[in-house]
Amino acid sequence: MPSEDKRKQDQSGPGTHKRLRNNEQNNNTVDDPSPDFSLDITDEGISKCGVLKWVTVKNFMCHDHLKFEFSPHINFVQGRNGSGKSAILTAVVIGLGGMARWTNRGNNLRDLIKHGKHTAVIEIGINNSGCNAFKPESYGNTIIVERRISLSAAASYKVKACDGKVVSVKKDELSRMLEHFNLQVDNPVTILNQDMSRSFFNTTEPKMLFKLFLKATQLQQMKDDYADLERNIESSLRTIECRKECLPDLEKEVEEQRIHYQFSLSLREKGNRLKELRHELAWAKIINLEQEKAKAEKDLENHTKARKEIQEKIEELQKVLEQESEVRERNTKLLEEATSHLATVSKEVREVDGKMRKIRNELKEKQSQFNTTEKKVRTLASEISTLRSAIEKDNDGAKSRWAAVRAEWQRKMNIVEDEIKELMQNLKTENTHFDNLQHTLDLRKSEKTHLDLEEKALSKQLNGFERELKGLQGQKGSHLTVYGQWVPQLLEKILHAHSNGLFIKKPVGPMGAFIKVRDTKWAHVAERVLGKRITSFCVDNQKDEKVLRELMKSITFDQQSMPIVSVSKFRDKVLDVSRFETSSSKYPSLWSILDISDTVVANTVIDQMQVESILLIPTAQEAGRRARFLQVL
Hints:
By secondary structure, the chain is an alpha+beta fold. It is built from 14 helices and 12 strands. It has 4 domains: 23-186, Rossmann fold (3-Layer(aba) Sandwich); 193-220, no CATH class; 309-477; 483-632, no CATH class. Helix 7 (219-393) runs antiparallel to helix 8 (396-477). Keywords: ATP-binding, Chromosome, Coiled coil, DNA damage, DNA recombination, DNA repair, Nucleotide-binding, Nucleus.
């Protein structure tokens, strides 16, 4: 049988070719159950493509594992019965797609599996080098055919490349390869088994010999092929006649399909145009979003700046408040000191007033005495003048008598004048002391008035600071006031109304109180998307909505508008948006960064704002690249 061209090897090496053994050698190796093959090669022959290189069987017939490598030219296989000569020939037939009955070794492939085993494997290597190679780009220089026979399943094929990679598992591929190499495993000229050769030599009947001739020369195969062709021609003619009858209908159908095709082309053009318009719309939306983003960033910057200024102002006010508190403490101390001093001064003033009243009384008495004395002096002066006139008229004898009287009156008058001078001096001193006391009292009154005015001003300023601080502390203490100063009042009314049974289900809100952002860098985006919804309330039904709106009408919202009221049936579980959520390994969705603690608020956000369909991309450039990628898809 033709086989592979082996390379020339060193005769001293382990691969030295075996020489043909004679019968004596065969008899001497009778204990060896393995088949032996002899090669007689005088020079290196080059095997052609389609030549067998080796056959390997496992659990096949009576062999656990048997590998047989063919020489490049003719192989003579000899050995005892059961050594594997027929097994090699049978393996070639079965491995290349033959049937069990062709080998006369059984009626079923399962009969060829070794007793006690479940599967048998046949592997055949075929040379594929040369100009007539079969798909050399797929198989390389060797084609490996593997056939697996199983007791519990149908036989299977694997056609492999030289590196063991499976190229095909279909028998059609094996049939094409055998036809390409003209390998006919059922041709007795190609493979003549023992039973066929015995029948050939023992048969003298011309009919059987001719049958063998037809089979060996492939004339029988050709005859069968011609018969199949004639049947196919007849069937084709009948089909053609039938198709001719159907031709008008087919032509009509072709025309209809052509119209449909033209319509499809038109639809495709319109679809392409629609796609372009959608892309333009998407880019227009992106541009608008970029503009909105720029505006939002500017607003955010302004708000951040304003917030910073307010924070600085609060810090300044706190510092001023601390300073004013210190000033107030100092002024309080000064006021206490001034009050104490004023009390002392008032006491002194009262004492001075008492003294002044006493002095005035004394002065009045002295003035009365002075007036009386002055009146007496005038009277005495008048009397003196009268007496002097009388004395001048008297004679000289009477002068001596009136001299003593005049001296007495002169003495009394001097005494009175001294008393008058003393009284005048005392009056002047008391007037000076009174003026000093009056001046001191006026100064104390002026100081008290100034301190009272300063205390009132400081108290007014301090009260203003305290009111402002209380307002700031009130906002800091209640986090709900960030959604509006009216929120605590409305929540209190809702709680009261619910306790009185006015609501079927208690409203939920404001929504922003139940929403947090896991990643703060997306907080402005979340605020932009949610918008006025952060101050909105959720109700379960129309009746609750009506009651809530009546409560809202009783509240003053300052400059804010009345909050939104969303009506939707309350659910116990959050909606599952995993099937519809926009997903990306690189960018998160808006839904994924929101931490919503209330089920009703979460479902309202999903229903009304579709946050699961919003993908968060940091920059417009990345958004543009992703949009172009989606356009390509």
